[in-house]
Amino acid sequence: MESKTAPQPLDIDESMFEISGLDLFDRVRERMGWTDQYLTDINNPEHPLLKDVDRMVMALEILRDSGKETTIVPDFDTDGICAGMILYAGLNEIGLTTNLHVPDYQLGHEIQPTVIDAVRQRFPNTSAIITCDAGTNSTAALNHANDIGLITLVTDHHVEESQSLAHILVNPNRIDETYPNREICGAHVAYQVVERYASLYQPHALSAITWLKTFAGIGTVADVMSLVYENRDLVREALMFTRLLIAAPQPAPTYKKVKSKYEEPDEFDDIDITIDRTPTLLSMLRSQNHHPVYMRAFEGLSMLLEELGATHERVDEQLYGFSIAPAFNATRRVDGDYRTGFAVFTADTPDEQRAAAQQLVEYNLQRKTQTREILGEILESDQPWAPYVFPTDALPGMLGLIAQNLMLMHGHPVAVVRIHADESCSGSMRSPTWFPVIEQLSSLGNPNIGAQGHEFACGVHAPSPQALCDALAILVPKRRDEVIAETGILVHSDPAALVLGTSADADAPLHEIKAITQYMDAVKELAPFGHGFPAPPVDMVINLVTCSIHTMGDQKQHLKIITPEGVALLWWNRADLAPLLSERKNSINVADAMCRLRVTLNLNTFAGHTTLQGIVDHEVEIAPES
């Protein structure tokens, strides 16, 4: 009888069953439409010259050669400040005698004739003005400047409504421009002007001018320009330069070696070694010969980064969009001193520059505090036009921030308005992507009710809060029903490109930290992300029953959810949701405990241990099972 041999065990490699981070990345690339060709195209930085840029730099060189003075007239927002500093530092570095007019946000974005008078009064030898991030449509001011004999040079990026009165206009959005990328910011336009000037007439200054890309990159992100084509290359270089403006990390403490009684003393005993932590770029610039205005610009930016707590590891596009830009824009939101933003870069002494940087940070803290206080007042008071219209006496600069918070709370369009003496109202609206505000209000055919700006973040006006509320009470439910009828679900945001957690459509469970980290590393290589090239949307699906829910922060204003896998979900300024989430956690209805959150992934390292975090933007409605 033939004997049977026992079957051999299968040679199974357990790694075959592991989820790969690169596989997750490939799935996301496919869902986002990121083909090799697409990525090649959007990373092509080549572009033609802006129309009339050579005429403008020739005019500037004539002014320099003849010893004439030029005064810069910028806008007051972050892009305007960055554009102003590029021209102020760059033109002085090149050798053109240049003054800077500091704009007052109370006068609005358009340049007024009174500004021209103020320039002449303060800088009586001015022969030419050069605007930045403003001026194209400032007809009255340009007409006045031309009448009193000033040369008017305008650098801007706003749409030219009718032929500008400027002697020379450089603007990607002028009527007769053929420049292919209309989405470059005012600071980028200013940079292209000074770079072209240096390359044609003062090539010795070109290397110094290149460092000013830092300001152009900040302006690009702050003004929410599309991060494609030349903007991508610009922001990448700006971020690299920004890292060079941050001091080296403080070295870990060292402990003095205690010698035994048998060791002989030597000349190195009791010597303290001082480590120079000066930012690399500042050390280099200080060793060279630069104009004081140019040097103060970089010294001030370095101070601001220090006051904001920036580190080399945290330098990315979010530093520009969520730290630097809000700090500059906070000044007008809290009715602060309009001179503060420019003083960071132009004050006479380092101490004054440092004080201005600290004041900006303080304004931003005030802005955050006021936002919480105003929200609290609104939520605790009688609101006759809720849930669509909320009146307030808050400063105009705060209305958009409040509307954004209320919109996220309610999940539908919200207007925050100030009521005027004639009972009319105006303010800001914020809306989810399923309700385009301008389009919807225009459909009323009522010129007294309307909006201006972007579809989902705009200014709004109406004869009264009641009239606006009545209009939204009709339009919002109607639009909501239309969207649900078309899609089966009310979509508040784009579909997720990656889903993590406990849902049927999850790409990976939360315990696959290695794969998720590999995915994060692969995605990071494609940065910068922003408008026009958004980061892949990530949803994290959790079961609240298995999670712990906490509040945190000095005022317990933030929400923290910890999953069984140790993943921390941080929801800034939403501690108000803690009772509701706890109620859902304890609900007898299983579906209530399921929570799908749109998050930004990051890693947190503490005491040598790295954990996964998700910064929550909003909750995503879970589609009902068919």
Labels describing this entry:
21 helices, 17 strands, 626 residues
Tell me what the structure shows.
The chain has 626 residues and is an alpha/beta fold. Helices cover 41% and strands 16% of the residues. It is built from 21 helices and 17 strands. It has helices at 21-32, 36-42, 53-65, 78-94, 113-122, 139-147, 186-201, 206-210, 213-222, 230-243, 280-286, 292-307, 317-333, 340-346, 350-380, 399-410, 437-442, 465-487, 513-524, 578-585, 590-593, and strands at 69-74, 98-100, 126-132, 151-155, 168-170, 389-391, 414-419, 425-430, 450-454, 457-462, 498-501, 538-543, 548-552, 558-562, 568-571, 594-606, 609-619. The strands form 3 sheets. A 7-stranded mixed β-sheet has the order 11-12-16-17-15-14-13. Strands 2-1-3-4-5 form a 5-stranded parallel β-sheet, with helices on both faces. Strands 6-7-8-10-9 form a 5-stranded mixed β-sheet.
